[in-house]
Design a protein that fits this description.
Helices cover 36% and strands 21% of the residues. It contains 14 helices and 23 strands. The strands form 5 sheets. Strands 2-1-9-8-7-10-11 form a 7-stranded mixed beta sheet, sandwiched between helices. Strands 15-17-18-13-12-19-20 form a 7-stranded mixed beta sheet, sandwiched between helices. A 5-stranded mixed beta sheet has the order 21-6-5-22-23, with no helix packed on it. Helix 6 links the parallel strand 8 and strand 9. The longest helix has 24 residues. It is globular, with a radius of gyration of 25 Å. The model has no long low-confidence stretch (mean pLDDT 97). Bound molecules: NADP nicotinamide-adenine-dinucleotide phosphate (NAP).
């Protein structure tokens, strides 16, 4: 399918008239054809108006129709074939295998949310019967959850498919009954157009209202900001930098009607190396593989190690030196991300007390990242906030603690994180048990003897965490519960039966699990 440089508003695909921009091939540092037309205020207004008009119609679609829509989006994405993968490779520098895997994950997410929609539990249908004889009498009360309204989605640079136009935010918002307006990431404009048109085709094929989906092309600072400020938009999904996420949070909070922003931002994902685990000869290789996977451009990248001073830790560091030394330099997603990486590494290396322990292979090719491991004493780490900043790429900092008390102090000191890993054996259980309560307060996902890279799309997954890893610690952006971000409860008191929504009708025509007078009833 030809890429035309077009955005999508409702049923129309067209070339924006407010200037142009091109995507960049980071492996060559050259622009890629074609040019993309940029959206202006009138385009934004039209997309938001259509989304607002679509909301009541779309949220009234039956569970089956909505689930089918999500599945059809997955089918239409697969129909794009190799052209999608080729364009995404060119725009992101990511390898074919990774992008094919990501496409599979994107479609699986859409299909998972189709199942979630059909299952109906997301509505939290809850009925309390009237008790007219009671003093005072209790009214008939029925609760269900409904969508918040049109959602603005900002695609992530590091997942051009799975966290972008038809990624987890879009899939969960559509599942919740919310129309979506996507602001395409400037790093993968062609990929965005291809996927956007697949979503639009699915919407038309499934008879969804115009405005259920739009894709805008423009700069974050203008069109992105205006989108979040638009009164029709009722929630925001974002993955990117802390600065970008905070800017959107401020805009959303300053509106006449403030709205929630679900921003996934920075995380260094501390990995605690307990003494028993250092006997595992496979650990250095496993760490180096996780650190360098995808050029280190994962939000769950192990950017920080924490260990206890010992000969065993020194041996681990020496072994990591060998494994990282064998890692080739790899292309980063964008020239901007590459520049930020090089600057971040240089700043870290220049901090007093920080020493380099391992270096991967360098390269003169454009936008390539060299992997590094640095080390610092815990006393320095605890006193210098600059050591805690995210370096987005394949660099990690080992924090060496004098004793267990200092390791616990480091765990207490770190900011909110998406993940933390503990490497331990049964011999380490006393220290592991002391770490756990602190980690529960600090992170969204605690894992043992593994690394956070590789986020399973499943019902029990949490990809979230306290600030600054996300803007709202109560939620997840991956997994079935991501739908909860775009829902709110409504209570119907003494509403006549002929006006009640299907999910709350006495006969339970949707045949969904409900809580009736405090008891879970699986179906009618
Ligand atoms: P970004 O600069 O935050 O951009 C993400 C999206 O938000 C883009 O669509 C961007 O628009 C838009 N945007 C940025 N600043 C904005 C603002 N002030 N107002 C409104 N919209 C704004 O992130 P990125 O380009 O993807 O990567 C840059 C850095 O983000 C990385 O170096 C890394 O530190 C971090 N990052 C973190 C994660 C994570 O999961 N933790 C993932 C990806 C990136 P444009 O397209 O116009 O730029």
């Amino acid at each position: 399918m030809q890429i035309a440089g077009e955005m999508i508003i409702g049923r129309s695909a067209f070339f924006g008239k407010e200037g142009t921009m091109k995507a960049v091939d980071p492996s060559r540092n050259t622009e890629i054809e074609p040019a993309f037309g940029l959206a202006g205020a009138a385009d934004l207004q039209r997309a938001c108006e259509l989304a607002e008009q679509a909301f009541d119609v779309y949220r009234a679609t039956g569970l089956e129709a909505r689930a089918k829509f999500l599945e059809t989006i997955a089918d239409r994405i697969m129909d794009l074939g190799p052209a999608l993968i080729e364009r995404a490779m060119q725009e992101s520098g990511l390898p074919q295998v990774r992008l094919e895997g990501e496409r599979g994950r994107t479609c699986n997410q859409l299909r998972l949310f189709a199942k979630v929609v059909r299952d109906g539990r997301w509505q939290s249908a809850t009925l309390d019967s009237a008790l007219p004889e009671r003093t005072p009498p209790r009214p008939d009360l029925r609760l269900r959850k409904i969508g918040l309204g049109p959602v603005a989605v900002f695609g992530a640079s590091n997942f051009p498919l799975a966290f972008s136009v038809a990624g987890g935010d879009t899939a969960s918002a559509l599942a919740a009954g919310c129309p979506v307006v996507v602001k395409a990431h400037s790093a993968h404009l062609g990929t965005s157009e291809l996927v956007g048109k697949a979503v639009a085709r699915a919407a038309e094929e499934c008879g969804m209202p115009e405005g259920v989906f739009s894709l805008l092309i423009g700069a974050g600072q203008t069109i992105g900001q205006e989108l979040v400020a638009h009164p029709a938009i009722k929630a925001v999904g974002f993955t990117g930098s802390r600065a970008g996420g905070i800017a959107l949070m401020r805009t959303a909070a300053a509106r006449k009607e403030p709205i929630p922003v679900y921003a996934e931002m920075s995380s260094i994902n501390p990995v605690f190396l307990l003494p028993g685990a250092l006997d595992n000869p496979k650990l250095p290789q496993a760490f180096a593989d996780s650190l360098t996977m995808g050029s280190g451009q994962f939000c769950t990248n192990p950017g920080m190690l924490v260990g206890l001073k010992s000969d065993k830790l020194d041996a681990f560091v020496a072994a990591v030196g060998g494994t990282i030394g064998a890692k080739p330099a790899t292309t980063m997603l964008t020239p901007g991300i590459h520049k930020a990486y090089v600057t971040g590494v240089a700043n870290l290396a220049g901090i007093a007390g920080v020493s380099q322990k391992a270096a991967g292979q360098g390269s003169d090719a454009p936008c390539t990242a060299q992997a590094f491991l640095y080390q610092v004493p815990a006393s320095e780490f605890l006193s210098n906030p600059a050591l805690e900043g995210e370096i987005f790429g394949p660099t990690s900092l080992l924090v060496v603690c004098d004793d267990e008390a200092q390791m616990l102090a480091v765990a207490e000191h770190v900011e909110g994180q998406l993940t933390s890993a503990v490497h331990a054996t049964a011999d380490d259980r006393a220290l592991a048990a002391k770490l756990l309560p602190t980690l529960e307060r600090k992170v969204g996902r605690i894992l043992f003897n593994g690394f956070g890279t590789g986020v399973e799309v499943a019902h029990a997954m949490v990809h979230g965490g306290p600030f600054p890893s996300t803007s709202d610690t109560r939620t997840t952006s991956v997994g079935a519960s991501a739908i909860d971000r775009f829902l709110r409860p409504v209570c119907y008191q003494d509403v006549p039966s002929y006006l009640l929504p299907e999910s709350l009708a006495d006969a339970n025509p949707q045949n969904i699990p409900r809580v009736v007078n405090g008891e879970l009833v699986w179906n009618s």
